[in-house]
Design brief:
This protein has 422 residues and is mainly alpha-helical. 55% of the residues lie in helices and 6% in strands. The chain has one domain (54-353). It is built from eleven helices and five strands, in the order H-H-E-E-H-H-H-H-H-H-H-H-H-E-E-E.
Length: 422
């Protein structure tokens, strides 16, 4: 039947029964081994290629700037970690004669233990160790990925990059938020239980950086998730991962506890600040919870510590040079943070809605250039004398030298000049 006729592998034309070459393009048909070797010379048609959009280019540039800011922020963190360790010489002598307390958030703060003297010093030392090792873990786990980010070739973002870009977004949001409050006649400078004693500020902000991550991320996200997965009998992760965090998928359960912990975290700050503190603290709580779920508690501790210890270089080294250096850093962080605030805002909506809003990839196709797979051109094998009825096709027009022809009615017609020959 006509529908079952063979087709030319080059031009897909139907072949007459017993044809030795294609009547349309002249390809030799009767020698499948020769045809196969001829097509081994050429690359197969490539998959559709996609052109990089201007939005993708802008994204790569912003990522590179974010990687540079990550490097600078890690340097600032190193300074603040040094300040924390140096501050132990101020805190420990005071701690021997005083007491501290630990609390839980329900969301109001409830003290459940008082630690005087030696126990005060012990818990303070544990807080220092927690921040110091969190910083080392972040450096180790981010080292290779950060190098790729600085080269504008990130395959997967490091925890340091995510922590710093979230910090810049939060910084920009807070600046805009408090500016709006000031324009409306509000006063956002009160509250916080600040102290004129440097040792107390060094300790209280360190305690907040570590202990609030324990009670708001581990107790309100990690352990509830462990209980739910245990009751459902579908937990596939080690038990310790629920304590240290990291490696979670953002399913319904994770999202519920993420929002819940951020809400408790925000409401707990009302009692020492004011109602205006709820919104920015809730957003910060979402960022801290996200870092806990995706990377681990070390990442959320470092973001919290970065925010709380941010101004200590100004307090310890009050000079025009320090003001200028930190001021330029914060200004650049806020400018770059505006872009990340928009980006993470869109991604947050996508995360909780389950719908894709922003697509980076362009659908425009670009021209593809075909290259042979081999540097040696295909040379057809000479025809065998034993098979004169099945010659190897090798047409060359005597008038124009073209090697392409169509076979019609027993003659070759040159595809270039149209002249016929036998």
């Amino acid at each position: 039947m006509d529908g079952e006729r063979a087709r030319c592998p080059r031009c897909a034309a139907e072949l007459p029964s017993g044809a030795s070459w294609c009547p349309r393009c002249g390809l030799a048909i009767a020698r499948p081994d020769q045809t196969r070797s001829q097509y081994d010379y050429y690359a197969p048609p490539p998959s559709p290629m996609v052109q990089k959009s201007s939005l993708q280019t802008a994204r790569e540039i912003i990522r590179g700037i974010g990687a540079v800011m990550t490097l600078l922020t890690l340097a600032l963190l190193a300074i603040n970690v040094g300040i924390m360790i140096w501050g132990s010489g101020l805190v420990i002598p005071e701690a021997w004669d005083k007491a501290t307390s630990l609390y839980v958030a329900l969301p109001w703060l409830i003290k459940f233990v008082v630690l005087p003297g030696a126990s005060f010093v012990a818990i303070y030392f544990l807080f220092i160790v927690a921040v110091f090792f969190s910083y080392l873990v972040m450096l180790e786990r981010s080292r290779k990925k950060l190098i790729d980010e600085l080269r504008f070739r990130p395959k997967e973002h490091s925890s340091a990059y995510m922590m710093v870009t979230l910090f810049m977004a939060i910084l920009t949001m807070n600046t805009a938020y408090y500016a709006i409050i000031a324009l409306m006649g509000g006063d956002a400078s009160t509250g916080g239980g600040g102290s004129s004693e440097l040792w107390e500020s060094l300790y209280s902000l360190l305690r907040a950086s570590v202990w609030e991550e324990v009670i708001c991320r581990i107790l309100l996200i990690g352990l509830p998730l462990a209980a739910v997965y245990w009751l459902k009998r579908d937990s596939k992760r080690p038990a310790y991962r629920y304590v240290i965090g990291g490696g979670f998928q953002f399913g319904t359960r994770e999202k519920v506890f993420l929002v819940f912990s951020a809400a408790i975290f925000a409401l707990a700050h009302v009692f020492s600040w004011d109602l205006y503190k709820i919104f920015p603290t809730f957003v910060a709580g979402l960022a801290l919870g996200y870092l806990f779920l995706k990377y681990g508690v070390y990442a959320s501790i470092m973001l919290h510590f970065l925010i709380d210890y941010l101004s200590f270089p100004l307090e310890l080294w009050p000079s025009d040079t320090t003001d200028l250096a930190l001021g330029i850093f914060l200004l650049v962080a806020e400018i770059v943070g505006l872009l990340y605030l928009v980006y993470y805002g869109v991604r947050s909506v996508e995360l909780f809605s389950g719908r894709r809003i922003w697509r980076w990839q362009s659908k425009r196709s670009i021209a593809a250039y075909y290259q042979p797979l081999s540097s040696t051109p295909y040379q057809p094998a000479p025809s065998s004398p034993a098979a004169p009825t099945n010659p190897t096709f090798g047409f060359v027009c005597k008038d124009c030298g073209s090697t392409e022809a169509s076979y019609r009615d027993g003659k070759f017609q040159c595809s270039k000049c149209g002249k016929e020959s036998n």
